[in-house]
Specification:
375 residues, alpha/beta, four-stranded antiparallel beta sheet, binds pyridoxal-5'-phosphate
């Protein structure tokens, strides 16, 4: 009996994505071992954060790095850092109240591309800032960005997603404009691994802070996030972060998460180049499994929904000839034994994402699909 059996909670085969609602990712043994080691001793937590940050910066070719309790917390802390710097009197005034906004000393606006918004707005807004949106469905001009910058601008945010980039001021240009006005540029790349080069690509372009979810592509602790960037802003992030009793106090990071994320980044950099081949083989496997079933067609879908350069398997069903709808198939996969969670795609298809599948699970998914389709 495992811990989940004891609790009466079913385990799930995740062929969907590194979704927080399913537990994000599965940590490799090296990461779990590092966390167990870390759990056995007391340490000075500020000194550990600093030392782990140095190692993470070195590994990811950055000036500085920090472990947050997730990429959403990283959004909050980096917004706070852009407002306060190392000024203790500003730090204790966060989150900004409505009366605070008029104070010339506190920056209170964040610029975002209207077509670059994601579901994580609140992580930025909880600092009390307001969004200033730029761009429309036809794109965004550099002039529009420049005109949006005022003395109140705390930062320019990009929510990285290659499939929307064509609607934005290109990174290099946005960074150049922001720099001219002394405005930091923050890139939320939480789900942008692969490719591994993103760990340094944005900062090499001149972005001041970039964050990644520790529990998505990196396969680190689910409640961890990696922030990389300039020493100046990383210091200001730590200044707002735990254990200091200010805006980041509720975003605690344990010694186990710090050490675990470091082990995960090492593991990821060592193995990242091998993942692509595994995903390609999965597409070929499903194509072969259903090659002689005319009601089922298998395609290679590329890139991922977040625009990541990785293939997924798309399977489309001829619902009328099979006598079952796509949604009924998804329902039976979820309710059956074992429970399988994959994403719907289009009107009559599903997508299988190799990023979260463990060895042997593609075979289980193919077998369950055949049972459900009675083929
Ligand atoms: C997942 C995600 C986040 C949040 O990351 P957590 O590590 O789960 O807090 C933030 N931004 C984007 C774009 C994401 O995909």
């Amino acid at each position: 009996m495992n811990v989940y059996d004891e609790l009466g909670i079913r385990t799930i085969i995740n062929g969907n994505a590194t979704l927080t609602r399913l537990g994000g990712s599965i940590m490799p043994a090296e990461v779990v071992a590092a966390m167990v080691e870390a759990s056995k001793h007391f340490v000075d937590i500020i000194a550990l954060q600093k030392r782990v940050g140095e190692e993470l910066a070195r590994l990811t070719r950055n000036e500085a790095a920090y472990v947050s309790c997730g990429a959403a917390a990283a959004l909050t802390l980096s917004t706070a850092a852009c407002i306060t710097g190392l000024d203790a009197s500003k730090r204790e005034r966060l989150p900004l109240g409505s009366g605070e906004r008029n104070l010339a000393t506190m920056k209170s606006e964040v610029i975002v591309h209207r077509y670059g918004r994601v579901g994580y707005d609140f992580a930025v807004r909880q600092v009390g800032v307001t969004f200033v949106e730029i761009g429309d469905e036809n794109g965004t001009s550099p002039d529009e960005l420049e005109a949006a910058i005022t003395a109140r601008t705390a930062a320019l945010f990009y929510f990285a997603n290659p499939s929307r980039e064509h609607l934005w001021v290109p990174y290099e240009e946005g960074i150049a404009i922001a720099k001219r006005h002394g405005v930091p540029v923050i890139v939320d790349a939480a789900a942008q691994l692969p490719p591994k080069e993103n760990l340094w690509r944005f900062t090499e372009m001149g972005a001041d802070v970039v964050m990644f979810s520790g529990g998505k592509g990196l396969c680190g602790p689910q409640s961890s996030g990696l922030i990389v960037g300039t020493q100046q802003l990383i210091d200001a992030i730590a200044f707002n972060g735990p254990p200091h009793p200010f805006i980041g106090r509720g975003m605690k990071v344990g010694k186990e998460e710090m050490v675990g994320l470091l082990a995960a980044v090492k593991w990821y950099l060592k193995h990242a180049d091998t993942f692509q081949q595994v995903y390609e083989e999965q597409v070929v496997y499903f194509a072969q499994e259903f090659a002689d079933v005319p009601e089922v067609t298998v395609h290679r879908s590329f890139p991922s929904e977040a625009g990541q350069p990785m293939p997924r398997t798309e399977i489309r069903f001829d619902e009328s000839r099979l006598g079952i709808t796509r949604d009924a198939i998804l329902h039976k996969l979820a309710e059956g034994e074992p429970s399988i969670d994959i994403a719907g795609a289009g009107a009559n298809g599903v997508l299988i994402n190799g990023q979260t599948l463990m060895p042997g699970e593609v075979e289980i998914i193919a077998r369950r699909l055949k049972e459900i389709l009675k083929i």
